[in-house]
What we know:
Keywords: Cell membrane, Heme biosynthesis, Iron, Membrane, Metal-binding, Oxidoreductase, Transmembrane, Transmembrane helix
Enzyme class: oxidoreductase
Pathway: Porphyrin-containing compound metabolism; heme A biosynthesis; heme A from heme O: step 1/1
Strand content: under 5%
Largest sheet: none
Low-confidence stretches: 346-353
Mean pLDDT: 89
Subcellular location: Cell membrane; Membrane
Subunit structure: Interacts with CtaB.
Number of helices: 12
Amino acid sequence: MRPHPERTGPVRTWLYLLAVLVVAMVAVGGATRLTGSGLSITEWRPVTGVVPPLSGADWAAEFEKYRGTPQYRILNEGLGLSDFKVLYAWEWGHRILGRIVGLAFFLPLLVFWWRGMLGRRLGLGLLALGVLGAAQGAIGWIMVASGLQPGMIAVAPLKLALHLTMASLILAGLVWLAAGERDEARAPAPRRLRATAALLPVLVLAQIFLGGLVAGSHAGLVHNTWPDMDGSLVPPLDDLFSVRPWIENFVDNTTLVQFNHRLTAYLLLAVALLHALDARIVQGGAGASRRAAGIAGLVLAQAGLGIATLLLAVPLWAALAHQVFAMAVLVMATVHARLSRGHVRTRRVGVPEAAAFGFEGLAKGRA
């Protein structure tokens, strides 16, 4: 049984606020990685880790643990306590924000469920996201633990990519559920447009995963030219598959990792542009057409930002902007995919329609 339409507004607001928190989590996580702070806390303490070091003795104990890590001995030997505190603050803030996201998810979930404000399908979807969120915490620690192994000065690229992709999947799930709680009835877009709209967030997620590999392997610090890669549009096979066994090239070979990220970017941009053109021809200025054009513009801007980040050799501000903007592209692609499926919910007479959030505003008119 569906809850009354007038009761879905608070639920949608909550879901979108959660989405904002997840984007903030990704941004802080990106800053933590780019500042080399992710290995400054060497233990996973879900409860007691909420309290940071409060005394000089506590700070000395934490610093001594970090001094025992390969990252300190190989990369940061001689680092002072004051600089360590900066590293620690980034990682502690990232972990605290994760706990805040968890509380902001589960506490309102219990309230909304108790008050009968969640339909069965929405409730099951939220429980699934809760499971993914719990798994994300475990993946985060597995990722950190990989960087504490002998000889490691950073986390494993594959684990970093999985951690980022899981956060992106949770974000997409929140936005998908929120967009599905719109009150008005809406006809679905034509089948071909629906199929392409559904493909777009999948491609964005794949590109985010590949971007995680680029970040984890520092592949953005090589081949800082475009559209060629140090003089070659397609690097020689000997460079693309120089690592043995060959399968490890897809994670550890910076040339192949960057090349794959470039190719997927071109594919995503081509699909987004063709989809926008197709929607314009099929539906003129209807909601689906406007949303598709908006996504094409966002993907084009993100591609330009990615090229600038590469040419500038990955300054912190550009890398962070590129990562956060990827979340914006994912959000818009997910909203578009969900709204293109249409809505069957009908609004009760006399109940005002809930206000559209952000990109949903482009859905006015026909689907």
